[in-house]
Design a protein that fits this description.
By secondary structure, this protein is an alpha/beta fold. The protein has one domain: Rossmann fold. Helices cover 28% and strands 22% of the residues. It has 7 helices and 11 strands. The longest helix is centred in the first third of the chain and has 20 residues. The protein is globular. The chain binds 6-phosphogluconic acid. The site of 6-phosphogluconic acid has 14 residues, from β5. It is an enzyme of class 3 (hydrolase). Its EC number is 3.1.1.31. It catalyses: 6-phospho-D-glucono-1,5-lactone + H2O = 6-phospho-D-gluconate + H(+). GO terms for molecular function: 6-phosphogluconolactonase activity.
Length: 231
């Protein structure tokens, strides 16, 4: 456990990445199964980026009633869906295949020049699938999570208690505009997992304890999360 200012998470280290990815997939499957036991439809929110692919490879073959699962991204880069930086493309290739192809993808992207052009429509679609039943997030070495980046143009709004469910975000560290779930929308998830790899990110997690959420946005959602780490 780590704690300051009343926040806490459970830190779960693994001997190797493969074991970690398999275990996270099993944990998510168990959380989804539990949620499906008490709701007609449940939702799973996952990150893009480079880390979660192996989790998706394991999870997509799990035997559960995927036809009752809404899948959403925690954040999306504002690029067409066939672009190699599209998180939607990653989902379509590695999670929404096999048994999980029966799940419903709730998009965080629509073909439009700017996220602002379609944000209201995206919010309405996403809000129909809330609350988040199961959440998986990644974290950058700069302590961003989803697209809540330190120094981003609308970070304070995204961290505020009254934040909209989704908001556009532009940040010095992000090559394209983003759309992201806000911190309170993510923090309301019933089960929360964060996956990180490598010593740099583990050190960043340690540093985050003494920083504000503005400098370390991951803090805004880590309360009651399980943080899975392997070198
Ligand atoms: O689109 C994205 O980039 C993600 O959703 C983002 O929040 C990601 O989880 C972190 O940046 C970690 O990224 P890596 O796993 O690539 O280090």
């Amino acid at each position: 456990m780590a704690g300051d200012q009343g926040v806490s998470y459970t830190f779960c280290p693994y001997a190797d990445r493969e074991m970690m990815m398999l275990n996270i997939s099993n944990r998510i499957a168990g959380d989804l199964e539990t949620a499906l036991g008490s709701s007609d439809r449940v939702s799973l929110v996952v990150p893009g980026g480079t880390t979660p692919g192996p989790i998706f490879d394991d999870l997509c073959d799990v035997d559960l009633d995927w036809s009752r699962v809404d899948v959403m991204l925690s954040d999306e880069r504002w690029v067409p869906e066939d672009h190699d930086r599209s998180n939607t493309l990653l989902l379509k290739r590695r999670l929404l295949v096999g048994r999980a192809a029966a799940a419903r993808l709730v998009p965080l992207y629509r073909a439009a020049e700017h996220p602002e052009d379609v944000i209201d429509q995206l919010i309405a679609e996403v809000e129909a699938s809330l609350p988040i039943s199961v959440l998986l997030l990644g974290m950058g070495a700069d302590m961003h999570t989803a697209s809540l980046f330190p120094g981003a143009d609308r970070l304070l709004e995204g961290l505020s208690r009254n934040a909209p469910t989704l908001l556009p975000m532009r940040a010095p560290g992000a090559p394209e505009p983003r759309i992201t779930f806000s911190a309170p929308a993510l923090d309301g998830a019933l089960a929360k997992h964060i996956v990180i790899t490598g010593l740099e990110k583990r050190d960043a997690l340690e540093r985050a304890r003494d920083l504000s959420s503005e400098d370390a946005p991951v803090k805004a959602i880590w309360n009651d999360a399980t943080i899975h780490w392997a070198e």
